[in-house]
Design brief:
Oligomer: single chain
Distance between the termini: 39 Å
Number of domains: 2
Strand content: 5-15%
Number of strands: 4
CATH architecture of the largest domain: Alpha-Beta Complex
Number of helices: 8
Radius of gyration: 17 Å
Low-confidence stretches: 80-84, 123-127
CATH class of the largest domain: Alpha Beta
Structural class: alpha+beta
Mean pLDDT: 86
Largest sheet: 4 strands, antiparallel
CATH topology of the largest domain: Aspartate Aminotransferase, domain 1
Helix content: 40-55%
């Protein structure tokens, strides 16, 4: 039997009222799908593991997120959304999630991939985005906000680059400082830099 981590209980208890039923539902579903899964806290939010990371969940001020570590091998293309960390967008209620049966199948597939040691291959012909270096002042601001850091590290390289470019393109120091503050606020809410232009925001 997998091990439950009391830190996950504390994380759920500290979440907003709307988030607690979502987090509890996801937690119980994951364990029911594969009783050998363990829990841990990595990067300040709950992860479910079995011979590697299977999936993770997080709660923000107004939404939750849920995602699979090897999503590209598990989920159909239309499910992979990037308007929030994870693959299911901003989850504000249980109705925003796929069905229990569908999620259960995906959890079991994620466990199978880990047991068999399957790695996520680089997509053929896809050019990897060159990730920009995070400037020291922005990194320091991220270090002071675990919630913002979790979101930032969970984003794709292209989403991280959008924040870095916006900050480094500032011509005046005051503008740069303001952009860093705004970036931290948006990241704490789980938002990519271009969140205002995305559908369903």
């Amino acid at each position: 039997m997998g091990k439950r981590d009391p830190r996950v209980d504390a994380y759920i208890d500290d979440a907003a009222d709307f988030a607690r039923p979502i987090l509890r539902h996801l937690r119980e579903l994951v364990h029911a799908a594969s009783p050998d899964i363990d829990e841990t806290i990595k990067w300040s939010f709950p992860h479910f593991t079995h011979q590697g990371i299977v999936c993770s969940m997080a709660a923000f001020k107004e939404h939750c997120t849920f995602g699979f570590w090897k999503a590209s091998l598990i989920l159909p293309d239309e499910t992979k959304r990037e308007e929030a960390m994870g693959q299911f967008g901003r989850i504000r209620s249980l109705e925003d999630l796929p069905s229990r049966g569908t999620l259960t199948e995906w959890v079991r597939e994620a466990v199978r991939l880990n047991r068999e040691g399957v790695k996520v291959p680089n997509a053929a012909g896809r050019k990897r985005a060159r990730e920009l270096e995070v400037p020291d002042d922005f990194r320091a601001a991220l270090d002071r906000s675990p919630a913002a850091a979790v979101t930032f590290e969970g984003f794709s390289p292209s989403h991280r680059n959008e924040y870095v470019e916006w900050i480094t393109e500032a011509r005046r120091e005051a503008t740069r400082e303001r952009r860093i503050r705004t970036s931290i606020e948006w990241l704490e809410e789980g938002k990519p830099h271009n969140w205002r232009y995305m559908k369903g925001r």
